[in-house]
Every structure is written in C-alpha cells, then in structure tokens.
Hints:
Number of helices: 5
Strand order of the largest sheet: 4-6-5-8-7
Radius of gyration: 19 Å
Distance between the termini: 41 Å
Number of strands: 10
Structural class: alpha+beta
Helix content: 10-25%
Mean pLDDT: 81
Low-confidence stretches: none
Strand content: 15-25%
Order of helices and strands: EHEEHEEEHEEHHEE
Amino acid sequence: DGLGDYAELPVCERCQENEGCYRCTDCTGGLRLCKECVVSDHGARPFHRVQRWNGEFYEKHSLREAGLVIQLGHDGRSCPRPYRKPTPLTVINISRIHEVDIDYCDCGTVGSSRQIVQLLRGSLWPATVDRPQTVTTLRTLKMFHALTLQGKLNAYDFWCGLVRITDRMGTRNTKVRKIYLCDAFGTAQLV
C-alpha cells in the first residue's frame, strides 16, 4: 500500500499542478489527485472512500475532511441561497457509515419539511422528521430489504456488518443513537 512505481508523491493526474496525495478506493484506475481535484471529482459520488498519503502509507480520509459539502436542492449544483451554513449529517451507506456536510437549499418554501423533501429527492431517507442528523441511502435500504427477504438477516446484524466495514479494527467509536419506543400505555422503553 505504498506509492507503487513512484519514488515520491506524483503530480495530480487531473490538474498537473499540485501533489497527488489522495486516491479513491472505489474509483477504477487508482488516480493520484490533489485535494481540490478529489473534491471536485466526487461531487456526484460523495460516498466514495478516499485515502490520503501521510508520508509513509495511505490512511483513511473522508471527503468531508477534504472539504466536500453536498448541495441539496439543485441536483448537486451550487445554490444561490444556501441555508445558513453546512449541516453535519451521518449517512448510512452500503460502502460504510459516513460523516458528511450538507448544504440545504433555501430558495423554496420555509420550514423543516423543506429539508425532508430535499433529503428524499437526494435519495436519502431521514431517521426522523424533526431536524434529521442521520439518514440512510435508499440504495442501502433496498439492500437490507433484499437480505432480509432472502437471508432472514435482522437489522442488528446488518448494522454490525456496516460498522465492521466502516472500521475493521474497531479503533473508532461509531455514533450510536439511543432509540426509545412507546408501548401501548405511552411508556418509553429503550430499544
């Protein structure tokens, strides 16, 4: 997992200007890109896994850390009136659990339903309708549905598999949100 045929960091293969210290493990070709090019190349693929050269080896890095902000409401194009500032969001995806920044569009109607509609149009299913902080991609929900029907996989085992894909060694703490369900008498119970 080193630089391969390069004795030192190569020049970015897109702009030919900066050092190509980033690579995407999901894109074919293994291009070495600079920070600006990896962000611009992955605007339409925000859930790809990238790595950054630290001087000795490629380490996990996120597109969020590189500066990618996902724009909703304009099919990925920049919004003339983004909603205040980027909102941090946890995204559960087949590839792993991601921490991303979202820019909501503020051009249309006002209210929290606007955010929910923008998330759904972006193929993201919110975990709650009140200020969502966690979403699941529709692709992941379809995969879980197929595995549940075919292999009788339960939600806990599916979640544990995604956590293992995100961090194979268990060195990082994965966000866990407590879920309370109310019984028929209105008593909240921790699930």
